[in-house]
Design a protein that fits this description.
It is built from 5 helices and 7 strands, in the order H-E-E-E-E-E-E-E-H-H-H-H. By secondary structure, it is an alpha+beta fold. The longest helix has 19 residues. It folds into 2 domains: about 100 residues, no CATH class; about 55 residues. It starts with 11 loop residues before the first helix and ends with a helix.
């Protein structure tokens, strides 16, 4: 099997479709080896940035950009690392600088949400140590991902208790409490 050398042509649109990452596209293959793939990812230029502070779209207030490296699900037994360009904007509400919110990334995580789900599924059937060995991650990293996923699932499943509108007291309670 022949490995692509840096600079060789490959259909970036096909890679973008394979990765299926909302609002972003693959713009460059940084490296491709037997063990790892490094891809440069950028948001579509016409896609407005969503502020991680207020949650609204920002068109004005562009400040700068930074690159983060996140791990995604493997492709053909190769670890996939995405070099993601994140835009920073000055929020019009509080005048602070925020990084754009990317739905498929957790706020301060170095892993895609779908990779974290994979870790969570593995830890359900095996130990954190074995899951880490299988994925090439340390025990502490697996634990941190697992903990984040449990917290996220708890927030999604816990429905806030509605506030009380009416209360009723029956005669038994009335007699026993001396109301």
């Amino acid at each position: 099997m022949e490995i692509l050398k840096l600079g060789e042509k490959m259909d970036l649109n096909t890679l973008t479709k394979i990765l299926n990452i909302e609002g972003c596209k693959v713009v460059e293959i940084l490296s491709l080896t037997e063990e790892e793939i490094h891809l440069k990812i950028e948001p579509y230029k016409r896609k407005p940035a969503i502020c991680s502070g207020c949650g609204e779209e920002h068109i004005q207030g562009y400040h700068s950009e930074k690159e983060v490296i996140v791990e995604d699900l493997p492709i053909s037994e190769r670890r996939v690392f995405l070099h993601v360009k994140k835009r920073l904007y000055r929020c019009s509400r509080d005048n602070k600088i925020y990084t754009e919110k990317i739905e498929w990334l957790n706020k301060r995580s170095r892993f895609t949400y779908r990779f974290a789900k994979q870790v969570n599924r593995l830890t359900a059937i095996t130990t954190n140590q074995e899951a880490g060995w299988y994925l090439g991650l340390g025990d502490e990293v697996v634990y941190r991902i697992y903990k984040e996923m449990l917290e996220k699932q708890a927030k999604e499943k816990l429905i806030p208790i509605p506030s009380v509108i009416h209360i009723s007291v029956d005669e038994v309670i009335y007699k026993n409490t001396g109301i």
